[in-house]
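Could you help me review a protein record that somebody else here produced? What it holds is a sequence and that sequence's fold in token form. I have pasted the whole thing underneath without changing anything:
=====
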Amino acid sequence: MLLDRFAEHLTYEKRYSPHTVSAYRKDLEQFQTYLAGAGVPRVEAATDKAVRLWMMQLMVQGVGARSVNRKLSSLRGFFRFARLVGEASTDPTALIDPPKTPKRLPEFVEEKGMQRLMDDQQWPPGNKGETDRLVMDLFYQTGMRLAELVGLRVGDADLRAGTLRVLGKRNKERIIPIGPDLVAALKQYVSSRHGSGGSVPADAPLLSDPVGEPLARRSVQRLVKHYLSGVTTQQKRSPHVIRHTFATHMLEHGADLNAVKELLGHANLAATQVYTHNTVEKLRKVHAKAHPRGGQ
């Protein structure tokens, strides 16, 4: 089945994450179901009219423009592959324009909120509190993604140099510096988890649950939501919000945009520039409030 071959192509050749491959597959299976109802037997036999009608149906059903764009992107990728392997002669998505999406600024937590969380939070006793604090500290000090954090191994931490090796999207590796306090906390954590005597296996999870297994994504999402609830009332309270917070606070304190790009692991500068809108907007409010004619 061509859909299975496409999923293997994304996994082994494009090196997409399991989460991304699953999203592509779900989009394509949804389109396949729509086509079956219209009497079209295979996705690769779809026409541009069928694609447009499906997109219209999705939007009538209340699916947002961003989600429709993502589904269209999944179709584009599929038809590129179908043409590459000779299963399709044309691409029905080639002349289809994506629906316009409203610009949405990244949500982030104000600096005073993060300072209150990291300095005043009463963490649970024992290993749980130690783990929870490290999770929050790592997210805020490095801006790494959820998948990157749960994938960290002991061998990825060079605590003498004060760096972490992170495996990002498409297996792109980057090195992130960390501060002395976080280095000390990680040394203590690894020592208490694995014992101070003897060498620690390099492939052991850097952060682990009570039985020594890597932290589950869902449990990390829950603990981040819990702790952010104490310092912000915004609806989104996720690891990605802390990533946005890291980038915004770095830029507010004068960090070079290219440096932030490298720390975040962005493929291009445009993905990082979105954070400058937050800092410019903040400056605009300060100007309006402080300048004698700023509010006119």
The chain has a mean pLDDT of 90. The chain is about 55% helix and 5% strand. The longest strand covers residues 163-167. The radius of gyration is 23 Å.
